[in-house]
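Onboarding guide, step 5: your first structure request.
Type a short instruction followed by the sequence, for example:

Predict the 3D structure of this protein.
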Amino acid sequence: MYHMNSIDTSIIISTYNSTEWLEKVLHGYNNQTYKLFEIVIADDGSNRETSDLIIKLQKEVFYSIIHVWHEDNGFQKSQILNKAIIQSCTSYIIMSDGDCIPRADFVQTHIKHREEGWFLSGGYFMLPMNISKLITIGDINEANCFDLKWLKANGLKSTFKNNKLSASGFKAWFLNKITPTNASWNGHNASGWKNDIIGINGFDERMQYGGQDRELGERLFNYGVKSKQIRYSSICIHLDHPRGYKTKESIDRNLAIRANTKKQSKAWTDYGIINTEANELI
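The system replies with structure tokens like these:
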């Protein structure tokens, strides 16, 4: 395990009762070319199975894992992410999800492109359920799950999006330049400076499923932080899963909060990290 003083990056990974996927993801981080990081698990109230998995993996991986957990109170991802931000130990934060396996150069790419005054916007490559299930720890260690030939042999269809896995060098740079997708803060693959995230008071805890990551990015813009597009350079594969927590009510409420953030050019939320700390002191 690397000495705490030598690490310079915290990777915050959100999870909820999904140990099969989380185990694959954490093995993905064990194969990273850049190793000076810690993992902070933002656990939105999982049962004992998740903590047992983390205890087991802490003996198998080279990096340290901080497990941040709170009681299950429905979908409270914004709240647990704020708690994880507080407990992270470094000045730079990469955020991803417990269903996104990082390619070996994932962290290295974020480190290469990070710059004061900017945040980085990555993407993901979505896999169907049958291939998600098929991937073994061996396939992750041997990088099969990032190999288009292997994926196509197991049923992946040919689409333009496959360029996310095959592009490198100039082609990846060019596709990052021309993509019509905004360089937004994406919860599955984004990074920025902890001071900037603290400076806008983290995530708005009123927001449940649907766009709370984008809203954080919109406030970072209002705070004066710019963004870089790295969706074709920083690769993670997204394992399939149902989204039972997606409701029209939460989507509509979040859209109203985002509209207000835009209208008022808000950088700060009154419902963020400081609010979290106050609640914990009561």
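Each response can be followed by summary notes, for example: The chain has one domain: 4-281.
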